[in-house]
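Supplementary notes (optional reading)

For those who missed the lab, this is the record we used. Protein: thioredoxin-dependent peroxiredoxin. Length: 68 residues.
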Amino acid sequence: MDEVMRVVESLQRAAKHKVATPANWKPGDPVVISPSVSNEEAKKMFPQGYEAPDLPSGKDYLRFTHVD
């Protein structure tokens, strides 16, 4: 039952916030902001901020944030 609840929460957050949840995600863990969301949109959508790790490509399409 725990896994079912985890999946339901993941799907709800993905639909509401334009994010994806990584494998083994649990509520409270960071989520990935969809690459279709521009940095300007992300700043408005996630005022608490987000983190973009340094990637070899130098691009910042992989962005992590927290949502409620």
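If you only remember one thing from this example: The first strand starts at residue 19 and ends at 20.
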